[in-house]
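Wed. Picked up where I left off yesterday with Transposase InsO family protein. The coffee machine is broken again, so keeping this brief.
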Amino acid sequence: MSKPEVLIKAVTVQKLSYGQVARRYGVSKTLVHRLHHRWLEEGDAAFRPRSSAPHSNPNRVPGPLQARVLELRDQLTADGLDAGPDTIHTHLLGEGHRIGRTTVWRILTRAGKVTPQRQKRPKSSLLRFAADRPNQMWQSDFTHWTLSTGAGVEIIGWLDDHSRYLLHLSAHRRVSGRTVTDTFTAAADKHGYPASTLTDNGMVYTTRYAGTITGTGNPNAFETLLALYGIAQKNGLPYKPTTQGKIERLWQTLKKHLHAHPATTIEELQVVLDGFRDYYNTQRPHRSINRRTPAFAYELIPKASPTAPDDPNLWRVRYDRVDPGGKISLRYANRMMHLGIGRPHAGTDVIVLIHNTDATVIDADGTVLSEHEIDPERTYQPQTKNG
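Structure written out below (tokens, as returned):
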């Protein structure tokens, strides 16, 4: 017998007054009165316990805001972007809405938008390794992608290890050694040179394993460029891609987006990559940097920089094309210099071999076109010997 039934029977069967029932059972007289009148109106249905939940909740999320949560979920998913509670919560805060991340998760769960998963290892238990400052270390890698026409292309990226800021992202028919040096230099000219780099052991990054297992290859153009600026080069262990885990994780996020935005040409793909890079840097919150955007984290504290060697004794290779004025441009000791080759060689593809301050310019057949003794105090570098 339920409590309502006991109180009602005391009034209807025992003929006790409301006050007597209240004193006997330690309840309020008002409750006894309400239950008795409910019985008079509903009969035995009054014996069933009623929910104590309020008819309205002043803290309930308004319907339009709940609809906006679900709209953002569908929109981000359709665009091939992360659409979890954290990302949606960040977007809502940017729109001026006041709502908690847990509330967003509950709305998604009630709407059946969250797929239950088995219990995973807590992310807080993972050991994370990251550079202490922006530009302290850049990660780089390239990945393959297929255009909607079936043509294969390759995408190279440069990522700041500290902030996850995506410094560079571009598509190429094939990533070569020159692609690596050109993209690295383009990113460095815009963001400053890093103190170190971290890549795999691909030949476009290092020749340390060229020739034999122990490695007998001479430094390639990228290795020489890093040595020239005093940039430490770090390479992951062979067959251990987790060493470059940050940029490997980037490829997962990127390819999810590319599937939602198929491109027919490499030019169309580059437009998609530019849009993704802007969103990734300025709008997408990152779990590993306390839900801040990479752009915010990259500019928050001073950047690190390399320490140039006093006596580099370095070799460097550069590929270029002689301009209509008969010159090529060369960055040396953080200065842009112009080497005079001669107007008759305008349009010629050349290779510049540099050893300390000596520069030799040759064509594709190996013919020496000019030689120069670089003067760091001058912008224009005339020939010392004519080829």
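Quick read: The chain has eleven helices and 13 strands.
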